[in-house]
């Protein structure tokens, strides 16, 4: 308890030095539906605000540790990923019907765009001029998304862990648990999936699970005997994972005091929720570093392309980094399928559910589930934060200094 109180005291000092008039603990007490200036903020947040230092020293150090980079390489990668995140929606519009997917190529430090052979010379020239690499693909993104949507309508057995569109491979990838690959139900599912379009089958070592946990003292918030982690502050509360609580459920904080109430929650199908806060708690645009790295300010929620680095903060395993592996993946948990998740190579453990995924200073999503742990490694999925903001009409609390 003393450790947590010290952490919160240091955070408050950090935010005051940063010029926030309402600095405090995270998630802290509700500021209400208006911004600090008193005006009503717009719904959602997708800005990519310019800052002299988009990544803290600690975040860069975590990228060095988890991604095997030098300090210079980590700084260069953050800058390149920011540029790719800005460029990605522009080249999608330019590509039009010929668009077949895009991803960040870490080796080249550039966005790569897949186009079908019928893309015009003018389209290719415009995309190259914008700074992106081009690859040729057999199937459009729309065709691959349609195939995935058809698979979404199938009933998946437990031996199928999930499926997603892989823009690099140009197919829909279906993941099956290695020990269940000979199961008759799995074989039938794979056979039906192949009928929907271009499908590649891969094996994974374990089935995904959510990362909620039983009560452990000194962690961010509790709902009954479940412990989860806070995702991101929004005006009036914070967002987190849907499997952590149902609408109307009360939430207590790290010190046992009442924080607020789940106002909305969806799981399965989705895995998101938001909690209103009050009773002396207020919100700040910060992701906790847990003493591993300095706390990270949040400046927006621009989506990081596949291949980008991403880091996660959670109340059990604290701070870890990895890479975005896939977007719009359907994950087949034991409780039911959850759609539109983002797959990463970041590890997580029970109690990390709901916690923050961030690239540089841009919020990405809240931890849903995965397989493995932070000793042997694994993979973790998150629910994109912009979808949560749009669903509930929330505004991300961002730092604009």
TrEMBL record:
Listed InterPro entries: Pept_S1_alpha_lytic, Pept_S1A_streptogrisin, Peptidase_S1_PA, Peptidase_S1_PA_chymotrypsin, Streptogrisin_prodomain
Region span, Disordered: 28-52
Record's keyword annotation contains Disulfide bond: yes
Superkingdom of the source species: Bacteria
Span of the signal peptide: 1-23
Pfam families the UniProt entry points to: Pro_Al_protease (PF02983)
Keyword annotations of the record: Disulfide bond, Hydrolase, Protease, Serine protease, Signal, Zymogen
Domain (Peptidase S1A alpha-lytic prodomain): residue spans on this chain: 139-193
Family recorded in the similarity comment: Belongs to the peptidase S1 family.
Protein name as annotated: S1 family peptidase
Naturally occurring in which organism (per UniProt): Streptomyces cinerochromogenes
């Amino acid at each position: 308890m003393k450790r947590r109180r010290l952490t919160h005291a240091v955070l408050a000092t950090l935010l005051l030095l940063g010029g926030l008039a309402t600095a405090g603990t995270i998630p802290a007490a509700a500021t209400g539906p208006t911004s600090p200036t008193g005006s009503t903020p717009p719904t959602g947040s997708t800005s990519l605000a310019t800052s002299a230092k988009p990544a803290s020293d600690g975040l860069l150090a975590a990228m060095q540790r988890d991604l095997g980079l030098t300090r210079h390489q980590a700084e260069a990668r953050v800058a390149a990923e920011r540029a790719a995140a800005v460029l990605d929606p522009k080249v999608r519009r330019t590509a039009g019907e010929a668009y077949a997917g895009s991803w960040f190529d870490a080796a080249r430090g550039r966005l790569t765009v897949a186009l079908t052979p019928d893309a015009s010379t003018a389209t290719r020239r415009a995309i190259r001029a914008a700074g992106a690499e081009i690859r040729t693909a057999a199937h459009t993104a729309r065709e691959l998304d349609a195939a995935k949507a058809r698979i979404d309508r199938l009933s998946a057995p437990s031996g199928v862990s999930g499926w997603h569109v892989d823009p690099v491979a140009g197919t829909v990838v279906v993941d099956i648990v290695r020990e269940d690959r000979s199961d008759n139900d799995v074989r039938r599912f794979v056979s039906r999936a192949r009928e929907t379009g271009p499908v590649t089958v891969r094996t994974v070592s374990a089935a995904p699970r959510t990362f909620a946990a039983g009560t452990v003292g000194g962690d961010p918030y509790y709902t009954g005997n479940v412990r989860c982690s806070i995702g991101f502050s929004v005006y009036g509360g914070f967002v987190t994972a849907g499997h952590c609580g149902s609408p109307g459920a009360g939430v207590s904080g790290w010190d046992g005091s009442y924080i607020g109430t789940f106002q909305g929650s969806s799981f399965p199908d989705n895995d998101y929720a938001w909690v209103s806060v009050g009773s002396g708690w207020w919100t700040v645009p910060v992701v906790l570093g847990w003493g591993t790295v300095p706390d990270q300010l949040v400046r927006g929620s621009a989506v990081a392309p596949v291949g980008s680095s991403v880091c996660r903060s959670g109340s059990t395993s604290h701070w870890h980094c990895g890479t975005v592996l896939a977007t719009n993946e359907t994950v087949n948990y034991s409780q039911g399928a959850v759609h539109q998740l983002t797959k990463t190579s970041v590890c997580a453990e029970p109690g990390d559910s709901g916690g923050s995924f961030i690239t540089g200073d841009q919020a990405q999503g809240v931890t849903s589930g995965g397989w493995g742990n932070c000793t042997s490694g694994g993979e973790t999925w998150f629910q994109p934060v912009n979808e949560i903001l749009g669903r509930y009409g929330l505004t991300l609390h961002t730092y604009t200094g």
